[in-house]
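As a warm-up, study this chain.
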Amino acid sequence: MNIYISGCLNHCPDCHYPELQCPDFGEELTRYIANIVSLYERFATCITFMGEGSCTDEEKAELCGYAKKIHERGMKAALYCGRDTEIESWMENFDYVKIGSYQAKKGTLTQKSTNQRLYKQSQGEWTDITSVFW
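Now compare it with the structure written out below.
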């Protein structure tokens, strides 16, 4: 299950979801998160947040709160931030984190030349699992 977060500041060329660059695209998640988790907990093992909005401290805290609610229901939480960054301390609330802007010349996660990386957290340690997609 994917949840798309609008307000992306990356503006990657060839973005797969350019509508997410709009600041107020879609519905406000706070109104629906409990229903979404309840609905999908029987069918999904992980909920992925695609994007992190404008990445303010308030938005980061909100995403962390959602991740905690998901964990309380026995599911995993994932984040695709789309920024060229390292794992940041606030991301530790997620089981999986994908980082890196989309760069068409370097390819997608399924190509060895990609700049994007997918990390899995286990017992507080992060492991780069990008190679499982090659």
